[in-house]
From TrEMBL:
One Pfam family per UniProt: UbiA
Organism of origin: Desulfobacula toluolica (strain DSM 7467 / Tol2)
InterPro entries: Protohaem_IX_farnesylTrfase (IPR006369), UbiA_prenyltransferase (IPR000537), UbiA_sf (IPR044878)
Recorded topology in the membrane: Multi-pass membrane protein
GO BP terms, alphabetized: heme biosynthetic process
Protein name as catalogued: heme o synthase
Keywords: Cell membrane, Heme biosynthesis, Membrane, Transferase, Transmembrane, Transmembrane helix
Transmembrane annotation, as ranges: 28-48, 55-75, 103-136, 148-166, 178-198, 229-247, 253-274, 281-301
GO molecular function: protoheme IX farnesyltransferase activity
């Protein structure tokens, strides 16, 4: 009997430890930060026309900085997140992680990311890393509770990791190639954001607080937001095609597949968004994210094959 009790205690302790680790890992928003790190790798590879250890290092440093910024964002939004179904179960609104612990993690990771960029890639990358941090945590996060214009710094901070990777290679920032890539990534973020918006609903207990915050759903009807998704997805598709017409991806197979990706994604998203169904919006969300992942992957592999 005592042995069985001991086993149960050990199992409960192990389960509790796994849950605690999960709560801490949730703070990092890895599903988003991995995209950010990959975009820095993409920017560096496109600048150098090859993949190297430096490309990987830049991606890791940007990933660390992005994770620190995400933890800080969780701290800033811990009350705000409680008003929405999608975010109310996060670690800090549920008080599963002490705010002090989250603050220490944020400070350490932001410092490591910025100092690493300064040490290994130079002052320009450090500067743009700092600008990304300011855009996300200093502008977007507080501004989204006050104005719909928060979408502007929100989009900008998603474009800057590409610039960090490009600057790490020592290439001029006025080069049309990097500007075109940044336009593609900026346009992708807008339908990505609007799909999340359609999925986001206020929790019943948070309705009063929710009504205090600006939101596009108070200006546009669901059908109008769906139209916005289709418009911005089409512009994103067009930007990829212009990028390909510039000859930026040289491998014929990868170039053709990228073109197919650009042509198909507006049709795929439009079908999923317009038709009503429980899984349509999640599928549209996954589709547009896989589309940009393929876009970056094609650019990276194209230069690996040269």
């Amino acid at each position: 009997m005592s042995g069985n009790k001991t086993d149960l205690v050990v199992q409960a302790g192990g389960s509790g430890s796994v849950q605690a680790i999960t709560h801490y890992l949730e703070l990092f928003k890895l599903h988003l930060c991995l995209y950010i790190g990959l975009s820095a790798v993409f920017g560096h590879v496109m600048a150098c026309q090859s993949f190297s250890f430096e490309s990987l290092l830049v991606g890791i440093l940007v990933l660390v900085l992005a994770c620190g910024s995400a933890v800080l964002n969780n701290i800033q939004d811990r009350v705000y997140d409680g008003f929405f179904f999608r975010t109310r179960h996060r670690s800090l609104p549920q008080k599963k992680v002490p705010v002090f612990h989250a603050a220490v993690i944020a400070i350490v990771m932001i410092w490591c990311g910025l100092f690493g960029l300064l040490l290994f890639t130079g002052l320009f990358c450090f500067f743009w890393g700092g600008m990304a941090l300011i855009a996300y945590n200093g502008l977007y996060t507080p501004l989204k509770k006050q104005s719909l214009l928060a979408i502007v710094p929100g989009t900008l901070c998603g474009m800057l990791p590409l610039l960090i990777g490009w600057a790490a290679a020592g290439k001029p920032l006025s080069d049309p190639h990097i500007l075109m890539i940044m336009v593609v990534m900026g346009l992708w973020q807008i339908p990505h954001f609007f799909i999340i918006l359609l999925k986001t609903k206020p929790s019943p207990s948070g309705m009063a607080g929710y009504n205090r915050f600006p939101c596009f759903t108070k200006i546009f009807s669901p059908n109008e937001i769906k139209l916005q998704i289709l418009i911005w997805t089409s512009l994103y598709s067009l930007a990829i095609l212009l990028f390909l017409l510039n000859g930026s991806i040289k491998n014929p197979l990868l170039s053709n597949l990228s073109g197919l990706n650009a042509v198909m994604i507006p049709f795929l998203v439009s079908i999923m968004v317009i038709k009503s169904g429980k899984w349509n919006l999640p599928f549209a969300f996954v589709s547009i994210n896989l589309s940009v992942l393929f876009f970056m992957g094609a650019g990276i592999f194209d230069n690996c094959l040269l």
